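Hi everyone, sorry if this is the wrong subforum. Our group has a chain we'd like a structural model of before ordering constructs, and none of us has done structure prediction before. Sequence below.
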Amino acid sequence: VQLQASGGGLVQAGGSLRLSCAASGVTFRDYAAGWFRQPPGKEREFVAGINWSGGSTGYAGSMKDRFLISRDNAHNTVWLQIDSLKPEDTAVYYCAAGWRSNSYGPTDFNFWGHGTLVTVSS
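Answer:
Right subforum, don't worry. Here is the predicted structure as tokens:
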């Protein structure tokens, strides 16, 4: 599985971003997908996950209000919409895929892409 995240950049606090992750090398609809992030100097943390069909999603508790994960299997893409960005959202964001198509929790992912950097200025 190859995963390529994009869409990061420098944004002002209060703004929005939509991160994209393009999958290749597999039948993407066979996999659960997710997003993680790693703030500077901190460990990587789970952000959100989505099952194979997009019909079921899950979020880290602190991110339910401002983050939205979605996918389009026809285009092998998963997105992460982030609204009302805060400086503490500054991180490298990674997309991930997991074999178990209906499992999308923090420990359910097997493949990782290169991240995309999001920097939020105050």
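For your construct planning: The mean pLDDT is 96. DSSP finds no helices and eleven strands in the chain.
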